[in-house]
Design a protein that fits this description.
5-stranded parallel beta sheet, 4-stranded antiparallel beta sheet
Length: 224
Amino acid sequence: MQRKTVIFVADSLDNAHKFQRVLSGFDVEVAAGSSVQLKKLLSQHPNHDLVIYEARGDALTNVASVESALAEDGSTAMLVIVGEDQLGEFRLPVQVKADFVVHGASSDECAARIRQLLWPGNEGGAGDFIVVDSMTVNLATYQVKVDGEPLDLTYLEYALLAFLVTHPGRTYSRDALLRRVWGFDYYGGSRTVDVHVRRVRAKLGPDLAQRLETVRGVGYLWSA
């Protein structure tokens, strides 16, 4: 998998310093700047995976416009930093996968929310390995290898595979996978799940692909 890119946008030094420490604990590339630099950062890093946006003060009114800009890229997630006194007027973005933290949240909470947005559906413990025939899934590094060779998976392809592999023998509907893997009702609908399943199967190869079964009229399962 390619290294993920995080765009961090804030105008306050306290959040800048805290998130710098938090993000240093992840294997990600970080592009940081102030709110006036947002458009430039998005343009310079078109393949970003997560935008962390400080929406305190007047910037809260800009959340909708930032959401609209990110909605064009369905694979981008958004973490909003909001003041506790603004929660009454804050509305979580719905066009992109999103979450929020209140200003002053602990570093551990911020890290947990970032981890879930970047690697959704990964519920395995750090350092866990899952081996299925010739495939090894490393849940600590978010890497999948077949016959010792890493697969070039997008993060949503990995998230879908990792979720099913860590829940073998259970059938999940397309709607359930959208909620559990994508984290919300993705606007692409069930077709999005079907497309990602086809891509994962193609990359796994014919033998392993047989384990990602289609349950007619229900959804998908990973056979144990």
